[in-house]
Every structure is written in C-alpha cells, then in structure tokens.
C-alpha cells in the first residue's frame, strides 16, 4: 500500500510542475504577444486555442491546490495528534519549514486567484471580438490588463514555487 503522504506529494508535484510551467509560458510568452497581434489573429485565437489553454491551466491549478492542501492537512493532523494546537502553531510559525510552506501556500493561492482574473480578461476579450467591429480602445484596455495580470500571477507563482522548494528540499521536516 502506498502511504497517503507519498501519493499526495506525487500528485501535487506532478500537477504543480504542469501548472507552473503552463502559467509561466502563458504569462511570459503568450500574454505579452497578444498586444502585438492583429485583430484578426486574436479573433482566431479566441475561437479555440486560448479558451482550451486556460481551461487546462485552471484545471491543473485546481488539482495542484487540492492535493497541496491535502498534503498540508495530512502533516498538520500529524502534528496535532502529537501535541495539539500548540504543536501545530509551533511548527507553522517557529520553524523554517512551516513558515516557508505556509507562505508558499498563501502566495500560491493568491497567484491562482490572479489567474482567475486572467480568465476573466480572456473571456472579456473573446466577447469583444464577437462584435462585428470591436472598439479598439476597449480591446487595448483588455490586452494591457491581461499582460499586467499575467505577469503578476506568474511572479506570485514563482515566489510560491521557490518557497515550497526551499521548504521541502533544504529545510528539515519538523519532528513530532
């Protein structure tokens, strides 16, 4: 039988790599180039490519968060069983591992919420392009916002990944 912590770690890590990679490619390579594309090129992207890509990114992000939260709770339950809430608080706020994992999780969650804003901007851009003659000012506003929000989300997720990697790679797991 596979230990639950191993299964949670593998699924969280696998989808985390996919999520982070896809988000980074979108935030650094795709979103900034949307501003330079013609209206016709963006209209074609809106028909299938971008909605599919964003659904993929969103889905992998949700799996990453759910299994990461499961992993976090699994460890916290172990610490709770060992010493109650004082033990949990001590691990979270007094150890490098706890602080790194807690901050990484919080910042990662903010990064995911920023990603939902990217999804909203893409949907807004798609609805603008469904019009016969899209308003250039409205299109430019959405493109600019999309670029900013994508870079913010990518930055938050990069910080989150660094904190998580520091926590699980270099800092010892606190003992009960």
Structure report:
The chain has 176 residues and is mostly helical. It has one domain. Helices cover 88% and strands 0% of the residues. It has five helices and no strands. Helix 1 packs across helix 3. It is elongated. The model has no long low-confidence stretch (mean pLDDT 83).
Q: Decide which structural class fits the backbone.
A: mainly alpha
Which residue ranges are poorly predicted, with pLDDT under 50 across at least 5 consecutive positions? none
Order of helices and strands: HHHHH
Give the overall pLDDT as a whole number.
83
Number of helices: 5
- Please bin the fraction of helical residues: over 70%
Form type: elongated
Residues in β-strands, percent: under 5%
Radius of gyration: 20 Å
Strand segment tally: 0
| Biggest beta sheet summary | none
**In angstroms, what separates the terminal alpha carbons?**
24 Å
Give the tags.
elongated, membrane
SSE blueprint and pairings:
Blueprint: H1 4-34, H2 39-47, H3 49-94, H4 96-130, H5 136-169
Helix pairs in contact: 1-3, 1-5, 2-4, 3-4, 4-5
Question: Summed up, what is this model?
Answer:
Keywords: Membrane, Transmembrane, Transmembrane helix. This protein is an all-alpha fold and 176 residues long.
């Amino acid at each position: 039988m596979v230990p639950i912590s191993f299964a949670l770690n593998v699924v969280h890590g696998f989808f985390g790599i996919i999520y982070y990679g896809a988000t980074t490619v979108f935030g650094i390579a795709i979103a900034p180039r949307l501003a330079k594309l013609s209206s016709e090129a963006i209209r074609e992207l809106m028909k299938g490519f971008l909605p599919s890509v964003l659904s993929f990114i969103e889905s992998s992000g949700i799996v990453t968060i759910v299994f990461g939260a499961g992993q976090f709770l699994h460890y916290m339950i172990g610490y709770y069983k060992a010493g109650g809430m004082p033990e949990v608080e001590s691990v979270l706020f007094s150890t490098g591992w706890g602080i790194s994992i807690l901050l990484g999780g919080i910042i990662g969650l903010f990064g995911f919420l920023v990603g939902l804003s990217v999804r909203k901007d893409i949907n807004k851009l798609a609805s603008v392009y469904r019009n016969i003659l899209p308003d250039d000012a409205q299109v430019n506003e959405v493109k600019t916002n999309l670029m900013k929000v994508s870079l913010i989300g990518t930055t938050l997720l990069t910080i989150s990944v660094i904190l998580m990697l520091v926590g699980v790679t270099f800092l010892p797991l606190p003992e009960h």
